[in-house]
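ok so for the tutorial part 2 we go from a plain amino acid sequence to predicted structure tokens. step 1 is just haveing the sequence, like this:
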Amino acid sequence: MSSMVKVEALHKSFGKLQVLNNVDLEVATGEVVVMIGASGSGKTTLLRCINLLEVPERGRIFIEGEPMGLHQPDGSFRPLADSILDQRRAHIGMVFQSFNLFPHLTVLGNVMLGPLLVRKLPKAEARALAERQLEKVGLAEKLNVYPSKLSGGQQQRVAIARALAMEPKLMLFDEPTSALDPELVGEVLETMRQLADDGMTMVIVTHEMHFARDVADRVCFLANGQILEQGPPEKIFAEPEHERTRTFLRRTMAHLGEINSH
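step 2 — the prediction. this is what the tokens look like for a chain of 262 residues:
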């Protein structure tokens, strides 16, 4: 299979704190990779480096074989010019913890904005595309509603539709359900399941272990800024090799058991 994402020897620090330490990651076209690990393990930073929302000090990043930066002989990383990066980022959708919808625009207006401004589509075409994506996330009847009138789960589904309206080849999800009330989590995960079934390439940071087990083609466990182990979910969840992975999963799954029993 062709490679959608390739990350090699990535290093990222914030001041004296090293957050990523020599990380390698490859994601095949159509693959769903879920990153798990404790808070502070580097998951979100790795995700944000893929589309250069964070710029690494060292390493190499490729999207569909195209470099996202200038790779110096000494290994240091320099981002490409903004104009080139913008073109490459146009093929990468990202969904954050917070929904970041424009409150003064309707649901339809929020989803049409990217196609109109970035892709320069005619208004009728942008509208048709936005309506299609809203139907895909189950919100076709909310076109003319403002974000303040939606639940958190609905707002996050609008945010997903907005990313999909750019017709990306790759979707990045940074803990998309962590800001939601528990009863609203399922509807967002269901939307993501549908994307996986449709063959969308996805890299997902999440604490939703059951979802990771059900949807991922591959699970990566991060600790101390490194991918400690990775593999199919059935292996990572049933037979993890590292004690750190076992401890993390034991604690997380016990916590989920407590939640589910209430």
